Amino acid sequence: MPLYKSIQTTNQTKILIWKIEESFDELSKDIELTNRCQIRVDSMKSELHKRGFMSIRHLLAEEGYEDKDLFYDEFGKPHLTDGKFISITHSFNFSAIIVSDNHPVGIDIEKQRDKIVRIAHKFTPFEEYKTLANHDALVRKLTIVWGAKESLYKIYEQKGLSFLQDINVQDFSFDDGRTVASIRFIDDNSTYTISFLEFEGFTCVYAIK
Question: What is the dotted CATH code of the domain comprising 3-103?
Answer without folding.
Answer: 3.90.470.20
